[in-house]
Amino acid sequence: MDDVESIFTKHFANNDRKKTMKFLRPQRQRESHMVTFFGLFTGCFVSLFSVYAILAHLSGIFRPNSERSYVETVYPIFSVFALLSLHLFMYGCNLFLWKGTRINYNFIFEFQPSTSLKYRDAFLIGTTFMTSVVAAMVIHLLLRASGFSPEPC
Known about the structure:
The protein is mostly helical.
């Protein structure tokens, strides 16, 4: 190892040992908490969606003789937010594949490299948004099941 360091210092770093060590020693990757939060929000989304499916089944929303106003009113509203989350997820997939194929999308779309979204950022925003949408759906279903409904105008 000492021989490799001395040869590299002599031929590639112009006898600068500090520069040699900068190239030869592995750089530590900066730890990110985004992976933790992405996993947290994904787990919350799955559990909330399971709770919503169970509550919807127990309240009988999907039975043929149940009132159609809930499905006709609430699902179009929440589907808009789900569509936005789907677009964020697809954008994150594009960023991930562009990074894997080494396409310089920052240059193509004229983004600043320091402020552009990375694929993990896009996935985190999408899962956070979808978790909040499903949480709102669960809260709405719980309020509806407890008999709380706004007075019609």
